Amino acid sequence: MSGREWPLRFVCGHDGCNETVNYRYSTKRDLMESFELKNYSDGRWRCIRHVRANEVLSANNLETRAVLTVEQKPHGRYFGSNGFIFGPGFKAFAADFPEGAQVIVTATLILPTPVEPEEETRA
Length: 123
Ligand SMILES: [Zn+2]
Hints:
By secondary structure, the chain is mainly beta. It folds into 2 domains: 1-51, no CATH class; 54-108, no CATH class. Helices cover 9% and strands 34% of the residues. It contains 2 helices and 7 strands. The strands form 3 sheets. The protein has a 3-stranded antiparallel beta sheet, with no helix packed on it. A two-stranded antiparallel sheet has the order 1-2. A hairpin with a 2-residue loop joins strand 3 and strand 4 (76-79). The longest helix is centred in the first third of the chain and has 6 residues, at 35-40. Residues 12, 14, 17, 19, 46-47, 49-50 line the site of zinc ion.
């Protein structure tokens, strides 16, 4: 057994972002045939903040919405490639619903009302 590792490193392709990710492979062949090398090279890797950036809640993006539709596949019903989806406050098994059923997940950001600083009183 060799202790040699084949590293692969990417920097987020979003302008000005310096997030990085490191992958390690046990052989050069694994690296050369990796999903990561084929899909993330040439600035295509994005960090969690910048992949599907429209999903990041902010003062300029107060609500996000995702629609997941049950599809009938040869081996059962799925939401895309998942038979089970979950998030804060919900769980759903595609097998429990007919094809075409939809789960709509909405996230809403409510910012606190800004507190105005008290005006200085001048004597
Ligand atoms: Zn980034």
